[in-house]
Amino acid sequence: MSLKWEGIMPAVTTKFTDGDTLDLKMFETNIKAQLNAGVHGIVLGGTLGEASTLLDEEKSTLTKTTVNMVKGQVPVLINVAEQSTKAAIAAAQKAETDGATGLMLLPPMRYKSGDRETVEYFKAVANSTSLPIMIYNNPVDYKIEVTLDMFEELLKCDNIEAVKESTRDITNVTRIKNRFGDRLKIMTGVDTIALESLLMGADGWVAGLVCAFPAETVAIYELQKAGKIKEAIEIYRWFMPLLELDINPKLVQNIKLAEVYTGIGTENVRAPRLPLHGNERQHVISVIEAALKARPTLPNYKNLSTLV
To answer: Would 108 be classed as within a structural domain?
Structure first.
């Protein structure tokens, strides 16, 4: 299927059993909830997916399982985050074999590559696969920024089509649009500035708290797209304390705990991560419980023509 870079694409969590194996039953429960809410794509094996702890065969299993589940309803992307160009090429080619629709591609891991090295890394991976690619630009967490000048060179590769824009600078949305128009699609990647980024022209949102609250996330996107900004802002303001759980070193544990409260996940994480405890846990629980008490009644966001 062709890949439309738009809408809500959950960066889904990876579900584990108590024995630290893939929990595909709970994973399916969560994916079904995402699809029922109307998401526009699924992103596997990202930061929230605990990518750095997954074995290659587990990534392959997740990809194949998701492709079989969604049956072409939405695109399925797998994250590529490797330490060497050789390994990244192998991962991209395996993803294509496994049936992925596209790739989310990070800069080299561990080694802080220079601009030229980063560009050559991305180009080598792009040239090794026919899959469409979204470059993940997150200098805050990964210490490598993909500048507009670097994108100028990268866009010579036809299958580099989008950026997951996570610089935390909303003005970058305008800079990208001014420089590249629709040639480089923008998927905002920071939950706490997502609506602002969408209103400034981002095409979609690779979201985190959507893992626990899929309907509310999709509703915000659909409402703002339909020009119902006031309604979107009202939900977004309710959502903000939860969204702030995403910009935290314990985002995986935070969001998995929220998934428990909404019935579509477990707290199981893979070591060295451990479930939240003590005051940290109580704080997150208080945020989740307060949000659930005030949870808004959503409009019929899947059929906005019926709204008054």
So the answer is: yes
Helix runs in 71-206, H state only: 85-98, 115-126, 139-142, 148-154, 171-180, 194-199
In Å, how far from its chain's centre is CA 295? 23
Q: Which of 136, 142, 221, 301 is catalytic?
A: 136
Active site residue 164: yes
146 is in an annotated binding site: no
- Residue range 36-83, pLDDT digits in tens: 999 999 999 999 999 999 999 999 999 999 999 999 999 999 999 999
Q: Is 111 in the active site?
A: no
The structural domain count of the chain equals 1
Let me know: does 119 contact 150? Beta carbons within 8 Å.
yes
1 occurs within a structural domain: no
The CATH code of the domain that includes 230 is 3.20.20.70
Helix H or strand E segment including 199 = helix 194-199
pLDDT for position 179 = 98
Q: How many Å separate Cα 189 from the centre of its chain?
A: 7
| Options 15, 59, 94, 164, the catalytic residue | 164
Q: Which residue has the tokens 């399916």?
A: 28
Q: How far apart are CA 208 and CA 305, in angstroms?
A: 28
What's the pLDDT tens digit per position in 162-186? 999 999 999 999 999 999 999 999 9
pTM: 0.96
Is the residue at 58 inside a domain?
yes
- pLDDT attached to residue 308: 42
Query: Under the phi-then-psi rule, with left for phi > 0, alpha for psi from -120 to 50, and beta for the rest, what region is 257?
Result: alpha
* Residue 2 falls inside a structural domain: no
- 161 in helix, strand or coil? strand
Expressed as residue numbers, the domain containing 31 is 7-306
Mean pLDDT along residues 276-282: 97
45, with CB counted inside 10 A (0-12, 13-18, 19+), is: buried
Give burial (CB, 10 Å; 0-12/13-18/19+) of 72: exposed
The confidence band for 1, taking pLDDT boundaries of 50, 70 and 90, is: low
pLDDT at residue 203 above 80?
yes
